[in-house]
Amino acid sequence: MEKIIIIGNGIAGVTAARHIRKLSDKEITIISAETDYFFSRTALMYVYMGHMKFEHTQPYENWFWKKNRIDLINGYVEKVNPKEQSLQLQNGQQIPYDQLILATGSKPNKFGWPGQDLKGVQGLVSKQDLDALEENAPNNKVCKRAVVVGGGLIGIELCEMLRSREIPVTFIVREDSFWNGVLPNGESQLINEHIKEHHIDLRLGMNLGEIHGDESGRVKAITIKETGEVIECQMVGLTAGVTPNIDFLEDSGIELGRGIKVNRYLETNFPNIYAIGDCAEQHEAIGNRRPIEAVWYTGRMMGETVAQTICGNKTKYNPGHWFNSAKFLDIEYQTYGWVFSERNKKEYEKHFHWRHPEEKVCITMAYHADTDKFLGLNTFGIRMRHEVFDRWLTEERSADYVLEHLEDANFDPEFYKAYENPIVAKYNSDTGSRIQTKKKSWKRILSLGA
Amino acid sequence: MSNTIDRSMALTGEPPKALNLNQKLATLFGMGGMGILILALFNINFQNRGLWLTLSLLAISGGIIWFTFASYIHKQPGIKNDGVMFKSISSRGFWGWIAGIALTGFYIVLYFYPQYLGLTKDGDNTGLIALFDPLSKLLSGNPASQWFVYGTLYTVAILAFGIKFLYKYRHNAYERLRTISVMFFQTAFAFLIPELMARLNGEGFSLPYYDLKNIWPLNYYNFERYRVNSFIDAGDIGLALLIFGILSIFVITPILTYKYGKRWYCSWVCGCGGLAETAGDSFRQLSDKSLFAWRVERWVVHSVVVFVTLMTTAVIYSYLGNDTSKYWLTKTTFLIGVATILTAIFAWVMIYKREQLKKDAIYGAVGYFVIIIALIGIHFFSGDGNVFLFKSETLRKTYSFLIGSIFSGVIGTGFYPIFGNRVWCRFGCPMAAILGFQQRLFSKFRITTNGGQCISCGNCSTYCEMGIDVRAYAQKGQNIVRSSCVGCGICSAVCPRGVLKLENGPTKGRINSQDVLLGNDVDLMQLVNENK
């Protein structure tokens, strides 16, 4: 029986394993040094905040793996030897494989800051990081102030976590507005305001200069590069992005860039070794995507895809329309298609922005300046229907059409206030269009009777 | 490695677990109100009972509301689950067990030893019940009973904790409306109207105590002889109420459940649901989500339905006579009627909905159907005697003890802090099972999963009071169509990625299933999802 080894039990590796099992009887083994069982990485924050216990973050009951004949090994892979088709665990054990899937995920970026390896300095990616956080910031007596460095999704989540225990937080963001490399200005501005509402000491346009330790090697303060200001703190969160977790592959002969280099079939330079999820790097970016996509959903899609190839149906990784979501403190964010920030905007990309006068609700729609083709939508505080937007993108609908039919796409809970009318009114006045909202139609939403 | 959890336990007295000063004062204030009740329970004789009762109820409600504002006023509107798993009351810790034991004790006394609450058969009430006499006399004109005391406290709990829930979910219009609805139905229909109706009773006219929203089989005693007699004796109004009771289960309920799912009842109207959603909200995360628990749930709750059907049939059968002056329905026509209805439902499901049933559901349905029809058959062949082998009175008493008292009261509410707030609704309520059966097979309601947006975080499953593993569906891109779902909407509320939406839509396309989720290669999606 062919033996498949998967390194990493995150969403990418586990999805691959589940799909291989559905399609075949191959022997499947998942190796992870992080935890015994698969858990949802994105849910770690809720464990620290007390919304869930760690076991709640495990999507499958513990009997699931045995029942589906997926073997689990808790161990750290030290070396991969492609020529002998085997790998070596830290405890010396050699494990042979026929096909190997690398799904080792990411680790936090460290940019060589002085003091970055002091005690109390950490990222937030793994279960071990969560355990470290309980150690470094269990409460506001032990941790009188925390500093979070890096204005991305993990950074703001870490701030939210620390605030749930009423730990004062300073949030150092390199950009002059939160996440504005990705978000258009209006949205980024809205989140800036919301961060302050949560009593987070937001420092925009600042960089970390140095981390200072005490005599026991534990962090005691940081210096801000631009101002020289010294901020006393007992914990420093490094959340300036992540980088593929591939150090153990250095001498393996597997082609590496920033990540593990793969072609569209997710194959490395060895025919029976694949890489998926955060650690994989496409030779050439697909469409507007980045060569390395460290996103939950893309990890899952690569897992779905590689399982096909391994089970004999060679399949390209060919993701559909881009989508993503996040939650910034209390504000939910969804995106469908491509909406770029002013910094990265294409020359043909035009934006329509609407923001509610009082509530923290806004949308930005991107459309083609010449053809009016709808390119993408960001929403803050409004939920949208994925299927509807996916279809509109496929059908290459116009901006007018999308706004006219916005009620079809609304996914907010029943009885929520609807914003379609003010949105369309603003659009009409901005663009001189004269469109009107159409009533929600189940026929259109579910493509019934078409 | 339960490192995190161990450390969290060591967090004694730190936010978000610690109570702030205002919360502590509010607790003290509310406990003061409880103290008055406890003093009354131990027969401290209050001079001005009306005043002390008012003080007590106001202090209890005031304490809860004060606590609410102390908890949330300094926070932004949004999900308020910080520290739920750290607090001992909401995570089966010390205070959870204390609360569970106290509640259970209260229910045992209430159901089986009301004399300790001060109920006096001949003569004036004493103790706790006497404290409630002034209010009872004000409403119905009669002295209080243990049920009046219970009803009052129950209503106060729904109202005060309802305000807590409203404020906790102030950003969520669905939760706000739903909570106002349960607060209204409890206060008006369960509490005030029946008491006021009792005022109408006088010479030659007497209606049974009737909470109109309490439908058979939840209201398992609705068709017992004494009630039916008194409906009939009360003339047109009584008859109208009796007919309403029958229409409720056979006409009104199916229509509403078809249109909106069983939530229209379970989380918008029902009193048991009302208490669970308000006072029980802090315990929703304690329900068991394992596959094993689900299997137990299906067998237990459907057995209760069979039990209540047999019991009610036997009870009605027992008093139907050949006396056509009162009952035009004879024993035989009644039994044939019951058998016909059951056969029709059974046949409909087996013919049209068979493919939607799991194997064990089919075994269960066939098994129970055979048993019921056999029992009815035995009766016909064995001549007059006891229908269903037992005396109807034995069945009735057993049901009322096991299900009516122990299950719905002692376990159902007493064990809130241990097994979660919907133990009764999930494992025991025959009404929920019947509505659920319909919701699963014949309703427009579903929880739609939003394409590929699920991140498997588990908030939805954790906070599902019915123990549904919502995530198991969401991460497959599959809509949630489950008989037990009461439509509380909390899974959708706590979802950080906007994945879940409760809605009523066309029955076509309601049940879907995808192996490859939206967002991936369209050809691959088509290939995999169609080859299933």
Explained architecture:
- Chain B: Residues 445-473, 476-505 form the 4Fe-4S ferredoxin-type domain.
- Chain B: It comes from Euzebyella saccharophila.
- Chain B: The chain crosses the membrane at residues 25-44, 50-73, 94-113, 147-167, 179-198, 237-258, 299-320, 332-352, 361-381, 401-419.
- Chain B: InterPro entries: 4Fe4S_Fe-S-bd (IPR017896), 4Fe4S_Fe_S_CS (IPR017900), Electron_Trans/Redox (IPR051684).
- Chain B: Keywords: 4Fe-4S, Electron transport, Iron, Iron-sulfur, Membrane, Metal-binding, Transmembrane, Transmembrane helix, Transport.
- Chain A: Keywords: FAD, Flavoprotein.
- The complex is a heterodimer of chains A (450) and B (532).
- Chain A is α/β, with parallel strands linked by helices and 450 residues long.
- Chain A folds into 3 domains: 3-107 and 243-310, FAD/NAD(P)-binding domain; 121-240, 3-Layer(bba) Sandwich (FAD/NAD(P)-binding domain); 323-445, Enolase-like, domain 1, CATH 3.30.390.
- Chain A is 24% helix and 26% strand.
- Chain A is built from 12 helices and 25 strands.
- Chain A has a 5-stranded parallel β-sheet. In chain A, strands 9-16-10-11-12 form a 5-stranded parallel β-sheet, covered by helices on one side.
- In chain A, strand 5 and strand 6 form a beta hairpin.
- Chain A is globular.
- The two termini of chain A are 47 Å apart.
- Chain B is mostly helical.
- Among the domains of chain B are: 3-75 and 113-200, no CATH class; 446-530, no CATH class.
- Chain B contains 23 helices and 2 strands.
- In chain B, helix 8 (173-200) crosses helix 12 (271-278), helix 13 packs antiparallel against helix 14 and helix 13 packs antiparallel against helix 16.
- The longest helix of chain B has 29 residues, at 291-319.
- The radius of gyration of chain B is 25 Å and the shape is flat.
- The model of chain B is unreliable at 1-11 (pLDDT under 50).
- At the A-B interface, helix 1, helix 2, helix 4, helix 7 and strand 21 of A face helix 1, helix 8, helix 20, helix 22 and strand 2 of B.
